[in-house]
Design brief:
Elements (H helix, E strand, L loop, with lengths): L1 H46 L3 H14 L8 H16 L3 H21 L6 H17 L6 H9 L6 H14 L1 H14 L3 H12 L6 H11 L3 H14 L2 H13 L3 H13 L3 H13 L3 H12 L6 H11 L3 H13 L3 H12 L4 H14 L2 H13 L3 H13 L3 H13 L3 H12 L4 H13 L1
Helix pairs in contact: 1-2, 2-3, 3-4, 3-5, 4-5, 5-6, 5-7, 6-7, 7-8, 7-9, 8-9, 9-11, 10-11, 10-12, 11-12, 11-13, 12-13, 13-15, 14-15, 15-17, 16-17, 17-18, 17-19, 18-19, 18-20, 19-20, 19-21, 20-21, 20-22, 21-23, 22-23
């Protein structure tokens, strides 16, 4: 009997030992599935930009799974969601409280996972959050911006640039020398380009000359181009003077083209005059054509007259075609009037065809009527073909009316077929009715 009891006890122990790991495995599996679901729910809330829901999801996740397989990532997303939710909050007190919570989570991330791939993103987010907190009167957070800006050049140079950008808002005298050093001395061309961007965002009289120096001297073409671009966005007289000097000093055509674009972004009278001067007299025909193009994108009221004057003064057909294109880009009636003058004047047929094309691209009943008048007064077969095409591109009722009139009255069978073809491209009831009538006549 004693042996039987002993045997029963041993069997029970073995069963318990077998069930224990199985239960633990099942429990662990369930916890893993729950963690996966919560993690995905947090990401889904972020994708939907439902920041309050995202905050709740990531808070729940952090409470239930403080040491998950994702390590630093949940901390980052919770801080990020808190910062985004703060932006949408109408209460300044609530905004500050949310951002302070975000700072706590970022500090936890950087303390526990300093070598994580999320650490750099966390440092940049910390600077953004700190900047907003300082603006809200929490000056104790300024240390994160200052320390980030003063950190040595290393793997976190991007963090340093973010910090410098924030510091420029608070202490420009401290940030500018550091930025200038980076843009002049850093060996990484991508970092120098980013530093150029940060510099360009701040209104300081020392910035345009520095950008000009970078445009002239940096060893990397992309960095030089970035400096030229941001000089154009600066919009002031200082930047314009530097751009004009750069155009004169550059030998590289690509850099000159970049300067032309930047000149076009400066809406002053001086920049327009410079573009006009280049379009008229630059020895490089391609650069003249580029200048003509940018004049056509200008809102300057003198652009149409200036382009027409150049058209009359030049004999180069390709340049004339570029001028016609630019006239077609201008707003207002003056450009159209000049195009009509070209289409009806003594220009070569190629140029007349170009003018007709751009009249057609403008649309509207008035331009459709102009095209019909050109068709009636022109004997050139190729020009008439272009007019038919241009009428087909004009979506006004007048354009379809003119095509129908030509299809009914044109004596030339080829032009008649062309008109019918373009009518067939229309989805209007009137066009369908006309085509049905043609079919019924057969």
């Amino acid at each position: 009997m004693k042996n039987l009891k002993k045997l029963f006890f041993l069997v029970l122990v073995v069963l318990l030992m077998a069930i224990g790991p199985l239960t633990a495995q099942t429990t662990g599996q369930a916890a893993g599935e729950k963690a996966d679901k919560l993690f995905q729910a947090g990401k889904d809330a972020i994708h939907k930009k439902d920041w309050n829901a995202a905050v709740e999801q990531w808070k729940n996740f952090s409470t239930l799974f403080p040491q998950s397989q994702w390590e630093a990532e949940p901390y980052y997303w919770l801080a990020y969601s808190l910062n985004q939710a703060a932006r949408e909050s109408g209460s300044s007190e609530k905004q500050t409280a949310m951002r302070e919570q975000a700072m706590i989570k970022l500090e936890m991330l950087l303390k526990r996972f300093n070598e994580s791939s999320w650490a750099s993103d966390a440092r940049m987010l910390r600077i953004e959050v700190a900047e907003n907190l300082v603006k809200a009167g929490k000056v104790q957070y300024k240390k994160y911006i200052t320390h980030g800006a003063e950190a040595g050049n290393g793997s976190d140079i991007n963090v340093k640039l973010v910090a410098l950008d924030a510091l420029m808002q608070m202490n420009k005298d401290k940030a500018l020398p550091i930025l200038k050093k980076i843009v002049k001395e850093n060996k990484d061309k991508n970092i120098r380009a980013k530093a150029v961007f940060v510099l360009s965002q701040h209104d300081d009289p020392s910035v345009p000359p520095l950008l000009g120096e970078i445009a002239r001297k940096d060893e990397d073409p992309h960095v030089r181009e970035q400096a030229i671009f941001w000089l154009g966005q600066e919009g002031g007289d200082a930047g314009l003077r530097i751009l004009i000097d750069l155009y004169s000093s550059f030998q590289d055509r690509k850099l000159k083209e970049k300067v032309l674009f930047s000149l076009s972004q400066n809406e002053s009278e001086a920049s327009f005059r410079k573009l006009l001067d280049i379009a008229k007299s630059d020895p490089d025909l391609e650069l003249r054509e580029k200048a003509v193009f940018w004049i056509g994108q200008s809102a300057d009221k003198r652009a149409a007259a200036a382009l027409m004057e150049m058209y009359k003064a030049n004999s180069d057909v390709e340049l004339k075609k570029k001028i016609i294109f630019s006239l077609g880009q201008l707003d207002g009636d003056q450009g159209m009037a000049f195009l009509k003058e070209i289409a009806t004047g003594n220009s070569a047929d190629r140029l007349k065809g170009e003018a007709v094309f751009w009249i057609g691209q403008k649309g509207g009943a008035a331009n459709a009527n102009m095209l019909k008048a050109l068709y009636d007064s022109n004997a050139n077969f190729a020009i008439k073909e272009k007019i038919l095409f241009s009428l087909s591109q004009n979506d006004s009722e007048a354009a379809l009316k003119h095509l129908l009139a030509i299809a009914r009255g044109e004596k030339n069978p080829q032009l008649k077929k062309k008109a019918i073809f373009w009518i067939g491209q229309s989805d209007s009831d009137e066009a369908a009715k006309f085509l049905q009538q043609l079919i019924d006549q057969e």
